[in-house]
User: What shape does this take?
Amino acid sequence: MRLREWTAGDADRVLEAFRSEDMRAQSGEPIRTLDDAVRWIEGWQDRGHAFAVELDGLVVGNVAVTGIDRHGNGWVSYWTTAQARGRGVAARAAGLLAEWAFAERGLFRLELGHRTNNPASCKVAVRAGFVAEGIERGKLVYDGVRYDVERHARLATD
Assistant: This one.
Protein backbone atom coordinates (compact mmCIF):
# COMPACT_ATOMS: atom_id res chain seq x y z
CA MET A 1 0.00 0.00 0.00
CA ARG A 2 1.09 3.53 -0.67
CA LEU A 3 -0.36 7.00 -0.36
CA ARG A 4 0.19 9.39 -3.23
CA GLU A 5 -1.11 12.68 -4.55
CA TRP A 6 -4.32 12.53 -6.56
CA THR A 7 -4.07 13.24 -10.29
CA ALA A 8 -6.72 14.06 -12.88
CA GLY A 9 -6.03 10.60 -14.32
CA ASP A 10 -7.64 9.10 -11.20
CA ALA A 11 -11.04 10.62 -12.00
CA ASP A 12 -12.47 7.32 -13.25
CA ARG A 13 -11.69 5.66 -9.90
CA VAL A 14 -13.29 8.56 -8.00
CA LEU A 15 -16.38 8.39 -10.17
CA GLU A 16 -16.64 4.64 -9.66
CA ALA A 17 -16.29 5.01 -5.87
CA PHE A 18 -19.00 7.68 -5.63
CA ARG A 19 -21.47 5.64 -7.67
CA SER A 20 -21.87 3.45 -4.59
CA GLU A 21 -25.06 4.37 -2.69
CA ASP A 22 -23.29 4.68 0.65
CA MET A 23 -20.69 7.09 -0.79
CA ARG A 24 -23.06 9.63 -2.31
CA ALA A 25 -23.39 11.61 0.92
CA GLN A 26 -19.62 11.69 1.47
CA SER A 27 -19.01 14.58 -0.90
CA GLY A 28 -20.32 18.10 -0.59
CA GLU A 29 -21.22 18.11 -4.28
CA PRO A 30 -22.67 15.23 -6.31
CA ILE A 31 -20.09 13.31 -8.34
CA ARG A 32 -21.94 12.04 -11.41
CA THR A 33 -19.50 12.65 -14.27
CA LEU A 34 -15.77 12.49 -14.94
CA ASP A 35 -15.71 16.30 -14.87
CA ASP A 36 -17.27 16.21 -11.38
CA ALA A 37 -14.59 13.75 -10.29
CA VAL A 38 -11.81 15.95 -11.68
CA ARG A 39 -13.25 18.96 -9.81
CA TRP A 40 -13.36 16.84 -6.61
CA ILE A 41 -9.67 15.98 -7.07
CA GLU A 42 -8.69 19.58 -7.86
CA GLY A 43 -10.73 20.89 -4.92
CA TRP A 44 -8.37 19.31 -2.42
CA GLN A 45 -5.79 22.00 -3.15
CA ASP A 46 -8.00 24.44 -1.24
CA ARG A 47 -9.22 22.11 1.52
CA GLY A 48 -6.16 20.35 2.87
CA HIS A 49 -4.06 17.31 2.09
CA ALA A 50 -5.67 14.32 0.41
CA PHE A 51 -3.97 11.19 -0.77
CA ALA A 52 -5.06 8.45 -3.12
CA VAL A 53 -4.72 5.07 -1.42
CA GLU A 54 -3.08 2.69 -3.85
CA LEU A 55 -3.07 -1.06 -3.35
CA ASP A 56 -1.32 -3.31 -5.87
CA GLY A 57 -1.21 -0.39 -8.33
CA LEU A 58 -4.94 0.36 -8.14
CA VAL A 59 -6.54 3.36 -6.38
CA VAL A 60 -8.89 1.95 -3.75
CA GLY A 61 -9.56 4.91 -1.47
CA ASN A 62 -8.80 8.31 -0.05
CA VAL A 63 -7.36 9.62 3.20
CA ALA A 64 -7.21 13.30 4.03
CA VAL A 65 -6.43 15.80 6.73
CA THR A 66 -8.25 19.13 6.65
CA GLY A 67 -9.15 21.91 9.06
CA ILE A 68 -5.56 22.36 10.16
CA ASP A 69 -5.49 25.08 12.77
CA ARG A 70 -2.89 27.18 14.58
CA HIS A 71 -2.88 24.70 17.47
CA GLY A 72 -1.51 21.87 15.33
CA ASN A 73 -4.85 20.07 15.06
CA GLY A 74 -6.33 18.50 11.95
CA TRP A 75 -9.47 16.61 10.90
CA VAL A 76 -9.06 13.17 9.30
CA SER A 77 -11.41 11.56 6.80
CA TYR A 78 -11.21 8.37 4.80
CA TRP A 79 -13.12 6.17 2.39
CA THR A 80 -12.45 3.06 0.37
CA THR A 81 -14.05 1.53 -2.67
CA ALA A 82 -16.54 -1.25 -2.10
CA GLN A 83 -14.00 -3.83 -3.32
CA ALA A 84 -11.43 -2.76 -0.70
CA ARG A 85 -13.71 -2.77 2.33
CA GLY A 86 -13.26 -5.31 5.09
CA ARG A 87 -9.58 -5.82 4.28
CA GLY A 88 -8.01 -3.35 6.72
CA VAL A 89 -7.16 -0.91 3.93
CA ALA A 90 -8.75 2.18 5.51
CA ALA A 91 -7.15 1.55 8.91
CA ARG A 92 -3.68 1.10 7.41
CA ALA A 93 -4.13 4.18 5.23
CA ALA A 94 -5.39 6.32 8.14
CA GLY A 95 -2.41 5.17 10.19
CA LEU A 96 0.00 6.13 7.40
CA LEU A 97 -1.73 9.50 7.05
CA ALA A 98 -1.36 10.13 10.79
CA GLU A 99 2.35 9.31 10.67
CA TRP A 100 2.75 11.69 7.70
CA ALA A 101 0.77 14.49 9.41
CA PHE A 102 2.83 14.25 12.59
CA ALA A 103 6.23 13.94 10.87
CA GLU A 104 5.81 16.14 7.79
CA ARG A 105 3.24 18.72 8.85
CA GLY A 106 4.23 18.86 12.52
CA LEU A 107 0.66 18.36 13.70
CA PHE A 108 0.02 17.29 17.28
CA ARG A 109 -3.64 16.20 17.35
CA LEU A 110 -5.74 14.50 14.70
CA GLU A 111 -9.48 14.12 15.12
CA LEU A 112 -12.16 12.23 13.27
CA GLY A 113 -15.81 11.40 13.76
CA HIS A 114 -18.21 8.73 12.60
CA ARG A 115 -21.93 8.20 12.95
CA THR A 116 -22.66 5.92 15.88
CA ASN A 117 -24.59 3.64 13.54
CA ASN A 118 -21.42 2.99 11.52
CA PRO A 119 -19.46 0.35 13.45
CA ALA A 120 -17.15 -0.32 10.48
CA SER A 121 -15.86 3.25 10.57
CA CYS A 122 -15.37 2.96 14.33
CA LYS A 123 -13.22 -0.13 13.80
CA VAL A 124 -11.13 1.75 11.25
CA ALA A 125 -10.53 4.60 13.70
CA VAL A 126 -9.56 2.31 16.58
CA ARG A 127 -7.29 0.14 14.43
CA ALA A 128 -5.57 3.30 13.15
CA GLY A 129 -4.76 4.32 16.72
CA PHE A 130 -7.53 6.88 17.29
CA VAL A 131 -8.97 6.84 20.82
CA ALA A 132 -12.71 7.37 21.34
CA GLU A 133 -13.37 10.59 23.25
CA GLY A 134 -17.13 10.98 23.35
CA ILE A 135 -20.47 11.36 21.62
CA GLU A 136 -21.65 14.51 19.87
CA ARG A 137 -25.42 14.29 19.97
CA GLY A 138 -27.44 15.09 16.85
CA LYS A 139 -24.41 16.46 15.00
CA LEU A 140 -25.17 15.29 11.44
CA VAL A 141 -28.35 15.25 9.39
CA TYR A 142 -28.96 13.10 6.30
CA ASP A 143 -32.32 12.95 4.57
CA GLY A 144 -33.95 14.76 7.48
CA VAL A 145 -32.63 12.33 10.11
CA ARG A 146 -30.19 13.47 12.81
CA TYR A 147 -27.30 11.22 13.79
CA ASP A 148 -25.03 11.14 16.81
CA VAL A 149 -21.29 11.15 16.09
CA GLU A 150 -18.51 9.52 18.07
CA ARG A 151 -15.34 11.61 18.16
CA HIS A 152 -11.89 9.97 18.14
CA ALA A 153 -8.44 11.51 18.36
CA ARG A 154 -4.83 10.50 17.97
CA LEU A 155 -1.96 12.51 19.40
CA ALA A 156 1.60 12.68 18.15
CA THR A 157 2.63 11.36 21.58
CA ASP A 158 0.34 8.29 21.46
